[in-house]
Amino acid sequence: MTTSILSKEEIKELVLKLNEIGAVKLGEFKLKSGIISPIYIDLRVTVSSPVLLASIASMMYKTVYAQSKPELVCGVPYTALPIATGMSIAHNIPMVVRRKEAKAYGTKQLIEGIFKEGDNVLVVEDLVTSGASVLETVRDLNSVGLTVTDVVVLLDRQQGAKQELEKRGLKLHSVFTMEELINTLVEAGKLTGPTLELVKNFLEANKNVVVPLPSSAPVRAPFVSFQERAKLATNPTANKLFQLMASKKTNLAVAVDLTVKQEILDLAEKIGSEICVLKTHVDIVQDYDQQFIKDLQAIAAKHNFLIFEDRKFADIGNTVKYQFENGVYEISKWADMVTIHGVAGPAIIDGFRESIKTTGAGLLLLAQMSSKGSMCVGEYTNQMVEMGKSNQDAVMGFICQERLSAMSDNFVLMTPGVQFNSAGDSMGQQYNTPEYVIKEKNTDVIIVGRGIYKSSNPKEEAIKYRTASWSAYESKQ
């Protein structure tokens, strides 16, 4: 964190004005990080004080632009948007706006404004504790090719944001810290008696405590090769897949949503040399029979790839046991891996245990999905990660949109919704490019569907996706 270039008098005047308009609140407040604090800074009220808002924007501008000159500014929604707007207007700096989610109509853009790939964006936030909100904005700016090197905030609560941002190559600039704010209020006689003791005790107790990012926060972990991760894997299929990817030099999986068995077999033969995994939805195959499975297994053995049946099991343990082992499809006899939802709770995994002890198949937990409006978010995602950590013998990894801080290197992370054309479709599917998924979201395997199987030359497209995703993996070393 850089030291403010503002004078002590300037900071004092600002702090006292914030206190005067009720932005400094005393009591008991639960922060986004989960910490219970006796002091809360509510900068949303500044929108009703235009002169003060303009002053805040000016001070933040001085704090960062004396040392760095980013080309664009972007406020973290929503409180920082007026601050970023004030900075943009007063100093003629172009601005981009990050939406909480992409629109379902019009341009469907997540980042609005005029920019070009490689432009450097200054991220503007009102205050930081762990830095999670800032990292979410940085992630989305990176997704459209923008770069971020600097973050400016009015207040640093001194609870770990600096450390977390520095880990990701981001420099934090702040106008003042929580310690400076409290000292200013004390010197001005605005914080006294029992309340002062409470606040001082809180500050002392939490001064050097780093608030960890939530498990649902994105994280860029140190590079560990697939060879090394094979040694860490506790599930045999995860071990096998890591070794396969390392030796074959591909982290491309292809989703084949075709309904005629011969078309699936023909495609598997064409692209088999390029992939590590072929993903099926066997229940949509109109002319399914056991010979189809035998033929598919023969092609998989010939080209050295694994078969992934994307069944998305979601019932109670006893039911999924029968769905996995019996019926027309007898999935347990041929699938190397299957997907499961967590809505039935961790007992669903017990329905697979006996079968996978024999077959060695791996379970992939659906932690996140690529469809717009998916409810696989927040606490559901956190619980899926915890379920995987508690069942590492059976769970080989996760279907996810990004590496989360609780996902360790023994898990395989597979990301669907990948396409060079990242515009999305009319039914809510949202796409990301191979490079973004592997380098920025820091997952392991890209899953490509229509971008390959609907192509007029699927082999050629598979080569392009394989090359792009493997190059992205190698560039992380």
UniProtKB/TrEMBL annotation:
Signal peptide: none annotated. The active site is at D310, K312, D315. GO terms for biological process: 'de novo' pyrimidine nucleobase biosynthetic process; 'de novo' UMP biosynthetic process. PROSITE patterns: OMPDECASE. GO terms for molecular function: orotate phosphoribosyltransferase activity; orotidine-5'-phosphate decarboxylase activity. Pathway: Pyrimidine metabolism; UMP biosynthesis via de novo pathway; UMP from orotate: step 2/2; Pyrimidine metabolism; UMP biosynthesis via de novo pathway; UMP from orotate: step 1/2. Pfam families: OMPdecase, Pribosyltran. The keyword Lyase applies. Keywords: Decarboxylase, Glycosyltransferase, Lyase, Multifunctional enzyme, Pyrimidine biosynthesis, Transferase. Residues 251-465 form the Orotidine 5'-phosphate decarboxylase domain. Its EC number is 2.4.2.10, 4.1.1.23. NCBIfam families: PRK13809.1, pyrE, pyrF. PANTHER family: OROTATE PHOSPHORIBOSYLTRANSFERASE, URIDINE 5'-MONOPHOSPHATE SYNTHASE. In the N-terminal section; belongs to the purine/pyrimidine phosphoribosyltransferase family. This is Uridine 5'-monophosphate synthase.
